[in-house]
Specification:
The structure is a homodimer. Chain A is mainly alpha-helical. Chain A has one domain: Winged helix-like DNA-binding domain superfamily/Winged helix DNA-binding domain (Arc Repressor Mutant, subunit A), CATH 1.10.10.10. Chain A has 7 helices and 2 strands; from the N terminus they run αααααββαα. The first copy, chain A, has a two-stranded antiparallel ribbon. In chain A, strand 1 and strand 2 form a beta hairpin. At the A-B interface, helix 1, helix 2, helix 3, helix 6 and helix 7 of A face helix 1, helix 2, helix 3, helix 6 and helix 7 of B. The first copy, chain A, binds a DNA duplex through helix 5. Chains A, B: This is MarR family transcriptional regulator. Chains A, B: It comes from Sphaerisporangium rufum. Chains A, B: One of its GO terms (molecular function) is DNA-binding transcription factor activity. Chains A, B: InterPro entries: HTH_MarR-typ (IPR000835), MarR/SlyA-like (IPR039422), WH-like_DNA-bd_sf (IPR036388), WH_DNA-bd_sf (IPR036390).
DNA sequence: TATTGTTATACTCTATAACTATA
DNA sequence: TATAGTTATAGAGTATAACAATA
């Protein structure tokens, strides 16, 4: 009590959303910076990680998981293919689609360079938090990142 | 034990950072959507909020607080000025700089439309969390959003 | 008819560099 | 000389629409 609804709205607008944005921006900057030495962007690393987790996927499916349009995926995969990190295999069940897969070089780069690099950034970034806070944060963000009930993918 | 360093790195890379990004993106989408009815963008709302908090500021100072270049600020302020939400007053101490200030219309729009709108988005977005989780989240994000020691503004 | 990948195209966002007026 | 604002411009990044091959 003593705080009007308008004041509450003002305070709320100032809190979680802005902090979430600021924190995400701060982390992204650090990640881009760390990856710069490898010539890869954060998004490209994301493609590799998705493939590492899920195995061969079509370009469109990768895009779906990263919220990237299929037309945008073309150039993204081009870059990774030129560097020999992924290969455009054909999906034998549906010959319209590719089966984009990690090459050996891609797997090695992930394991020996990219993951350690990003892990170090995370370490420095989240290092200010205690273990309990980090666990809390992961759990809470997991709740927020999931789509709310009744709002699945199209 | 039983988890290699490489495996740890892989897991770590998969956790906080991605979640942070996903959550921020999800929230931003909802905010942009909610603001669309007002014809304002998330960034423009940000300018108004900064002015409401700090009082009249130069364009460059607003940009500093929002991580926006001064050349980019020009158009941003143009839009808000055309809509009558801010005014370009002159800083009497330094006549090179403007003193951008909220107009009465700007203050009213914030109080009666924009803050309630964004507060509702926050409410729906963070509504899945309990009160304790929300408090936790705000506190932890506050730690992360702050620049680490020895990395202040230029 | 619908879908995958592709291309051309356009649009948004942003920053860089050069200019002006003040300091 | 340095700084606030401005402008022109160019570079990312992205999406839309139309097309070929396949379903």
């Amino acid at each position: 009590m003593g705080v009007s609804e308008e004041e509450q709205a003002r305070l709320l607008a100032r809190s979680t959303g802005w902090l979430l944005n600021d924190a995400a921006r701060a982390l992204n900057q650090r990640l881009e910076e760390a990856l710069r030495a490898t010539g890869l962007r954060w998004r490209e690393y994301g493609v590799l990680v998705v493939l590492e987790e899920a195995g061969p996927l079509s370009q469109q499916e990768i895009g779906r998981r990263l919220a990237v349009d299929r037309s945008t995926m073309v150039h993204l995969v081009d870059v990774l293919e030129e560097r020999g990190l992924v290969a455009r295999g054909r999906d034998r069940a549906d010959r319209r689609a590719y089966a984009i897969e990690l090459t050996g070089a891609g797997q090695e780069l992930l394991a020996h360079v990219l993951h350690p690099l990003t892990a170090e950034v995370h370490e420095r970034f989240a290092g200010r938090l205690g273990r309990r806070d980090r666990a809390h944060l992961d759990r809470i963000l997991g709740l927020l990142a999931a789509p709310p009930a009744g709002e699945g993918p199209a």
